[in-house]
Amino acid sequence: MMVEATTLRPGYSFSRVIKGGWQLAGDHGPVDRQRAIADMEHFFDAGINAFDCADIYTGVEEMIGAFVDHIRESRGEDAVDDIKVHTKLVPDFDRLATITPADIEATIDRSLRRLRLERLPLVQFYWWDLSIGRPHDVLASLKNIQAKGKIQYLGATNWSEAAMQPFLDAGFDLVSSQVQYSLLDNRPAGAFSDWCASNRMQILAYGTLAGGFLTERWLGAADPGFAFENRSLVKYRLIIDEFGGWPLFQDLLGALKAVADRHGVTIGAVASRWVLDRPQVGAVIIGARTAEHLAETQAIFGLRLDGEDRGSIDAVLDRRSGPTGRIYGLEGDKAGRHGRIMKYNLGGAR
Question: Which structural domains are found in the chain, ordered by start?
């Protein structure tokens, strides 16, 4: 199977499917650490060489670091160079007013130690509230750290184009924007995608499977409400409400199942391919805890949706009601039902 690759800047390429790390963090159920590390090698051997994590994903940078060390010991440093680790810098909300450049560099150094790397390939920056503190100075400090050789590229996550434009105006080179993008959440389409294209930024899309809702497991299932074992499912159940509710979601799953059956793939493969085909999407981030469904993930690369496929899917999407508004607008409202489930102070919890 030929693995598709994307290029953020000349000389920096990686697979168009990125193995996500949020599902390996706390609040997502039990994790077999040794199996998780071993399964990273299975993804790597399958050509999926990009791994997404964050300084606030409990234990995930350390697990990826153990995988990196294993590859270094068993295959050498050249093989490690083929591993593209994309982490995030997310200062705690309660520290936004007081955080210093020294604090930022200490966090980057901690990520380097955890990941067993001398340079972070991509650091994706997020600041909970741009009206608090001095986010421009913090990003400037990241640029200085980059000049020291500790960071290769800088990107942003969960920011609208209006939030990113002042940073670009100040001369910062942001190569990517990681945002939620799925059949259920089309907010990045249109103006945001066009803006990214005009500024040489690719979209790295997370939530393409909506925490697992866009899979066969939920086809024909009764509405579960909001009694879930993890925040990820609550988050995406809220998005289903914004989309148009459970009955419309079931109509979408039915349409996706028909497309999947025509191509001999899974609903998840169709959902991921649909996002990969959107303008300016460089890669999708799939939060697989294990390699159990690796073959299904690989099938994404061989899938090509035709006009009939898109027409049947669009017939459902044309009936959706949302979500609407700017990128991360719903989630950024701390008082709203999307924002209330977020945890804002995880950076110093370890």
Answer: 12-341 (3.20.20.100)
